[in-house]
TrEMBL record, chains A, B:
Cited InterPro entries: Acyl-CoA_dh-like_C_dom, Acyl-CoA_Oxase/DH_mid-dom, Acyl-CoA_Oxase/DH_mid-dom_sf, AcylCo_DH-like_C, AcylCo_DH/oxidase_C, AcylCoA_DH/ox_N, AcylCoA_DH/ox_N_sf, AcylCoA_DH/oxidase_NM_dom_sf
Record protein name field: Acyl-CoA dehydrogenase
Ranges where the Acyl-CoA dehydrogenase/oxidase C-terminal domain occurs: 292-457
Species for this entry: Mycolicibacterium komossense
Domain Acyl-CoA oxidase/dehydrogenase middle: 162-261
Keywords for this protein: FAD, Flavoprotein, Oxidoreductase
Domain Acyl-CoA dehydrogenase/oxidase N-terminal stretches: 43-156
Database matches in Gene3D superfamilies: Acyl-CoA dehydrogenase/oxidase, N-terminal domain, Butyryl-CoA Dehydrogenase, subunit A, domain 2, Butyryl-CoA Dehydrogenase, subunit A, domain 3
Acetyl-CoA dehydrogenase-like C-terminal domain boundaries: 479-593
Essential cofactor(s): FAD
UniProt family annotation: Belongs to the acyl-CoA dehydrogenase family.
Amino acid sequence: MKSDLLSRRDLDFLLFEWLGIDELTKRERFADHSAETFSDVLDLCEELATHYFAPHNKRSDANEPTFDGSTVTVIPEVKEALDAFAAADLIGLSMDQRFGGSQLPMAVAQAGFAYFAAANVATSGYVMLTTANANLLTKFGTAEQIATFVTPMLSGRFSGTMALSETQAGSSLADILTRAEPQEDGSYRLFGSKMWISGAEHEMTDNIVNLVLAKIPGGPAGTKGISLFIVPKFLVGDDGSIGERNDVALAGLNHKMGQRGITNTVLNFGDGTHRPGGQPGAVGYLIGEPHRGITYMFHMMNEARLGVGMGAVALGYTGYLKSLEYARSRPQGRPATAKDPSTPQVPIIEHPDVKRMLLAQKAYVEGALALELYCGRLVDWQHSAESDDELQRSTDLLDILTPVGKSWPSQWCLEANSLAIQVHGGYGYTREYDVEQLYRDNRLNPIHEGTHGIQSLDLLGRKVIQRGGASLAELGRVIATTIAEANAAGGELTEPAAALTAAWSRLVSVTAGMFASGDIDAALANSVVYLEAFGHLVIAWIWLEQLCAAHGKTGDFYDGKRQAAQYFFRYELPKTGPQLDLLERLDHTTLEMRDAWF
Amino acid sequence: MKSDLLSRRDLDFLLFEWLGIDELTKRERFADHSAETFSDVLDLCEELATHYFAPHNKRSDANEPTFDGSTVTVIPEVKEALDAFAAADLIGLSMDQRFGGSQLPMAVAQAGFAYFAAANVATSGYVMLTTANANLLTKFGTAEQIATFVTPMLSGRFSGTMALSETQAGSSLADILTRAEPQEDGSYRLFGSKMWISGAEHEMTDNIVNLVLAKIPGGPAGTKGISLFIVPKFLVGDDGSIGERNDVALAGLNHKMGQRGITNTVLNFGDGTHRPGGQPGAVGYLIGEPHRGITYMFHMMNEARLGVGMGAVALGYTGYLKSLEYARSRPQGRPATAKDPSTPQVPIIEHPDVKRMLLAQKAYVEGALALELYCGRLVDWQHSAESDDELQRSTDLLDILTPVGKSWPSQWCLEANSLAIQVHGGYGYTREYDVEQLYRDNRLNPIHEGTHGIQSLDLLGRKVIQRGGASLAELGRVIATTIAEANAAGGELTEPAAALTAAWSRLVSVTAGMFASGDIDAALANSVVYLEAFGHLVIAWIWLEQLCAAHGKTGDFYDGKRQAAQYFFRYELPKTGPQLDLLERLDHTTLEMRDAWF
């Protein structure tokens, strides 16, 4: 199948030639699989994404969900797509077989999922949330909770949401006000309001399983007093039947710039719209222990953050392919040195500046895709670690790469979408073409699941220094390994290997200097600059990895990899120079700025 | 009046304290005016923009023009706004008094117009096009053409458009196909189709004056065979009465990501929908001489490009002010060093990273506004030059600054809008707030009136080398003057003056090296990198100019200027280092990329 969603050739290169993902089948967890089943899954995902998700992408953007005061209406193609997804057993793709999943490697599941995000990021949001919800419940829920809620999510009867934020508490979850009052039967009653809940309140599944953060009265202040609850839209009988309506009520829909096809809601819990069992409050079931909700949620959130990153990659990647196709087919202008107006116009791909815009997109989206798949394999190593040391090292590395895996694609694959518009010229700015929607859709990614600012504090204020700098050291170790391999190979790898060596060593010394200074305020005031420099270094390393994997191989595909890598090393990596200068001198400009001066 | 459209304090600083715009009243052209009339015009513009343009900005975005096959419907508030604008005599604000204009300085007219663009860029597009159209006609039209078409445009009875592009000819105007056949009575009949025509086909004015590029059969190939015609929607009688319908027919509306409130059309000329005088073809009247259409249009286009730049500034500026207001009123989180969750949340403006995002916006939008007003004053100097030398120098400088004045705000004030969204968090991504629309609206600006790529070729391939490098030399001279003033002042001006000295001298030597190399293909392949580096240098110089104007003055406003300048010099100007490195070695990466490698 030839589609413009993703490049299967690139996926095969990254998964098999580079990451050697088939090696995972030697491990017990993945022993039932083979390179062939991995390949079949990708075929299936591409086919379903093409036939069920892509065709209504524009229509669901132009016809966002509506609320008439009682019912939310979503265009019917969305349900058809979700049903097809569930019928193909894709919700539990990476989940343990004991819970009904397929136990495929995360790297393969991610790659498969990227097809759906590229085809229709809004509709795929419903299944992404259901998957994340189900994964969390299998990890921390009871057997009964799993049977009651996870099993019907896997079959597509139920869907799931994550209800964290409140209007007054977005980035600052410590300030949520929703409360959960314990009942005599061991259940809870919830009262409060949640904001930005995607995938909530629709009629496409028999039930919606909301995972809700709330505070049990009397608990500690801040995040240490937050617990996690299952609050279904309908109560469920012991036999799995749909029972009474729970007191979960839609207060309103948010209207977004993009990703319009998925409901995004303000949800009220326990506002008296319904009275389950004749009592006030929304019935909730505690997950795990009280006051540990943030820990459970963060377990899910790391995977969700990589999921956001992969969503950004998918949007960037399909925009790149669409603009490439446009550039090949659109005649306009003539070479700079051949201005004779009587000669035919040439396809715009022949103009060097158009090649620059395509090459930049290629460098961004292929670099970012490779990073996400690398992180996916780290998750797989965690899930199948054969020693404590392997588990620790995978975890250290994944910890420090996660803020980059979330933020870098959110920034640079959005920039890729902007370049895709620019390649199209005026056409790209219209809804008659596809790329303007991708740009709108992708603009959400630097915001949700932790803004850029939050990611930068996570990186510099936590991940870099955790366990005595063990994560940073582990990343340094794998980078050094790549550089050694590149230097051994020589040839076209010498220049980028030298550039990465210099840049990484500078980052390490700048980082040490920032902490040695004791001027933590200035360090944190520049944390986003740090995140951006760090991210570019990580992607440079990922490109050097790809160069190693392509080394000695001939053909257009590998030449393209080499040229994109060269672009990244020459046009992008040098941007980190001024950023590191700024960090080195711990610039105080923003810190010293005063409200009254604006 | 306190509005969030623009900062009047900043406008007053730039126009009066920095540019000394009241000095212009000593010149004959502006002798009827005073600082007071300038100020009154700004008051009037702010008031009309606030009362007639801002209130329907969201509504016209959500209810774009519709076409039922015969009539285009635009929400009624648009006509009310256009009528109010015309009734206040604003269309001819900078036009000669002999044509019915107010003959105000361009710098003042631009500043006034920026209020309308900030309030509602789509609705203000109608009047901007009418103004540009009328200005072109007064310059190149006959007395009769001016009387017939310009006078009713000034009063608001007629409106104007610019019809250049065709579906197959956007950036490459040489390839237009619309033909104009001469008639015995001296008029022409036009046949062809035009694309991307904003402000065409609506019922809000009695007539629409389309300025249309077309080829007279038998003329030279390419741009040298293009002529310019007036093609009104309705023919106009000798007494100014509206006559027969001309054969200008709407083929369809384009549906854009932003700027949705203004019609954007495909227009057919002479397709037989109407038969004026019983004959086929759209009646057109030649402007000036045959085959000189591109020259006339380019005269208008330079002002239009600065107009696009100012539109981008206006959108960036109002987004900055809206995000500033939000940051001051939104409590969220606590200082990094005070995590006690029982303390109240602080307004987000107290977080250093939010200050960074606000300071970046301030540095972008105030720098870009200052550049546009500086260019406006150059136009005023051209219009009132007291010597050939002054005229030549103003022209040289304006020529080289125009591609920057068009592209820099289009890039960086769009980035400001993205930061305004980011400051708002999730709210910024919703249509319930204002900033997402600004971001969508602003994304057009790097495309129309010559894309970034076109601007970069204009800069490097034409403006830098024209007249033996006279434009570049003149810019170097004024920059050196600023640096000398800064060095004489000393203090906080020393560091930025030194940075600019070094960066400018490097740009000059890199530019010389690029041309000396003879490798013009590689130079032009990196023209966008050149444009970006050049633009940042120009804005750094503009910030140094502002620092000079603020020197020795005390108070929050001036401290804010100093801090924003410091931000630009420390966080932005250093970005030019790697760009100049790349240009210096004339990188071939994009040039060598091949279609088959993508």
